[in-house]
Write a structure and sequence with these properties.
Elements (H helix, E strand, L loop, with lengths): L6 H4 L27 H14 L8 H12 L10 H21 L29
Helix pairs in contact: 2-3, 3-4
Length: 131
Amino acid sequence: MSALWDPLDVCAISELLQYLTCIRVTKSRRSCGLIVSQEARLKANSKLETLGRITPNSDEVKAWLLKIAGLLLCKQWHQNQGLSIARQWQEAVRNLAPLELTMPHGRAQIPRTLGDHTPDVTAGSSEHPYH
């Protein structure tokens, strides 16, 4: 099934995934520096791919974004910030959703970092964000 939208691009996550560390910064605006496990990063990537197949205005998106944020935050200092990050990402998704809904025949051209595609809006996902 093809993606409906690109969460990496819409939520500006692709740049964050370049590094092996927590996606948060310290109070002095430096990268947290604590390592996020490869397993957690792979899970986040997988969930981001699945999320892209869910309609952006779906109620499921919030739960998916919260889980992804938790996977990309260090366990020592920043796990409690997952909700605020998920809310920021959700706002970016909300800004995208009207484009999806107003395009003719329910189709939209959404730019991707690796090229453009026309999404299949009939697609859904049976995967749950917490599995």
